[in-house]
Design brief:
The protein has about 425 residues and is α/β, with parallel strands linked by helices. The chain is about 35% helix and about 15% strand. The chain is built from 13 helices and 16 strands. The protein is globular and about 60 Å long. The chain binds pyridoxal-5'-phosphate. The site of pyridoxal-5'-phosphate has 15 residues, from α5.
């Protein structure tokens, strides 16, 4: 056995990791290389071999304030002295109450009720349960299906997976066990010219199946891991109106977009529409702990119990973990006290300007951006291990997938650091484009 407490040899660690530990979406037979990180500070990840990388990923949308933040550290340490965890059945605590208060205050007025979960996928499961239970309690037991759009990503558990894009969302392998939901075409950008034809299929699917549909599930404005697609706010207004007219609930999954990422605190603010149910996660704890929340309107929350005794059928073991809730409270306060809007706007302008030259590269199909998100889409899928290594050589942490090379850096990133990210994208794609000619 390697005693990891005393072994200083990163190579031994990596060998053990490779042999025994699954990483996200990897093979145990032919795993992609994983770099050992020894620490992280501000917007930098420090590798075990001493190299420092500027982080372009915010650890998958989460570390909005950067790493090792003194205030977030202090909040967790203080909470640790009173309690790390306590069950939430029959008990409550200040960190959960403080966090719920902030979520209710910051989100749209109708959203008054909070369910805490341990991850984003679970918050989507809970949102689906809420919608189905709501209609069940009204005696509409046929309303159990969901309508969504192509290109979405809502998580890896079965309920969440069933509304992910059916092509790139693992549906094929699990076709026999996944519930069959309804998919409208992927929403698109309008560039100032909306066309009603874009919503035609959605409208027909909704109207033709309204007696079976419990809810529409959508990532507002930006579809994340399903393809980094940015779409017109007009869709959200139409979705909202059509849901209202057809007695269908509207669920927004803001697990990726919430807490300022798109330039608004929540992406639904771009359209000024309010969902019945809202999923939050990722950036909620500033990247410190896993925690998510499902918020519901009073209509939904009370409707679930309309038959007199309906209880929401969910209750995770680590529900409302106090350490996670406490650091989420601190992260939200830190965000609101920071000039996050100016930071995100500045990042948006800089990304727009500095990624634009990528359009000229032969391998590039599209360049797009919104808020603190920048995306370069390539014509063919990139060679992951090669490209990953190139980025590391360029001193940045950018992890592409499929045809997408994208960044969503911490909001505290400095202009020169951001230029390093965008410059690395250009350089690496230029080299890759030449090689594949
Ligand atoms: C990441 C993500 C999820 C899943 O969250 P996990 O915490 O990974 O379970 C769901 N929806 C969206 C939009 C996401 O970006």
């Amino acid at each position: 056995m390697i005693d990891f407490k005393i072994s200083k040899d990163p190579k031994l660690w990596r060998q053990y990791d490779r042999k025994h530990i699954w990483h996200p979406y990897t093979s145990m037979l032919h795993p992609l290389p994983a770099y050992t990180v020894s620490s992280a500070h501000g917007v930098c990840l420090k590798l075990a071999d001493g190299r420092e990388l500027i982080d372009g990923m915010s650890s998958w949308w989460t570390a909005i304030h950067g790493y090792n933040h003194p205030r977030l550290n202090a909040a967790i340490e203080e909470q640790l002295k009173s309690m790390a965890h306590v069950m939430f059945g029959g008990l409550t605590h200040q960190p959960a109450i403080g966090l719920a208060e902030r979520l209710v205050e910051l989100t749209a007025k109708p959203l008054q009720h909070v369910f805490f979960c341990d991850s984003g996928s679970v918050s989507v499961e809970v949102a689906i349960k809420m919608a189905i239970q709501y209609w069940y309690a009204q005696g509409k037991t046929n309303k159990q299906r969901l309508l969504t759009v192509r290109g979405g990503y809502h998580g890896d558990t079965f309920g969440a997976m069933s509304v992910c894009d059916p092509v790139n969302g693992m549906h094929q392998m699990f076709a026999g066990v996944l519930p069959q939901h309804l998919f409208a075409p992927r929403p698109q950008r309008d560039d100032g010219k909306w066309d009603d034809v874009w919503i035609k299929d959605f409208k027909e699917l909704l109207e033709n199946n309204r007696n079976e549909i419990a809810a529409v599930v959508i990532e507002p404005i930006v579809q994340g891991a399903g393809g980094m697609n940015i779409f017109s706010a007009e869709y959200l207004r139409r979705f909202h109106r059509l849901c209202d007219e057809n007695d269908v609930l509207l669920i927004f999954d803001e697990i990726a977009t919430g807490f300022g990422r798109t330039g608004r605190l929540f992406a639904y603010e771009h359209a000024d529409v309010v969902p019945d149910i809202l999923c939050l996660g990722k950036a909620m704890t500033g990247g410190y702990m896993t925690l998510a929340a499902t918020l519901a309107s009073t209509r939904v929350a009370e409707g679930i119990s309309a038959d007199g005794h309906g209880v929401l059928m969910h209750g995770p073991t680590f529900m409302a973990n106090p350490l996670a809730c406490r650091v989420a409270v601190e992260s939200i306060d830190l965000l609101l006290e920071s000039p996050w809007q100016q930071q995100v706007n500045a990042i948006e302008k800089q990304i727009q300007k500095e990624l634009a030259p990528c359009r000229q590269l032969p391998g590039v199909a599209d360049v797009r951006n919104i808020g603190a998100i920048g995306v370069v889409e390539t014509k063919i899928p990139v060679e992951m291990p090669w490209m990953q290594e190139q980025f590391v050589k360029n001193g940045v942490w950018i992890r592409p997938f499929g045809n997408l090379v994208y960044i969503m850096p911490p909001y505290i990133i400095e202009p020169e650091q951001l230029s390093k990210l965008t410059g690395a994208i250009y350089n690496v794609l230029e080299e890759w484009g030449q090689e594949s000619d």
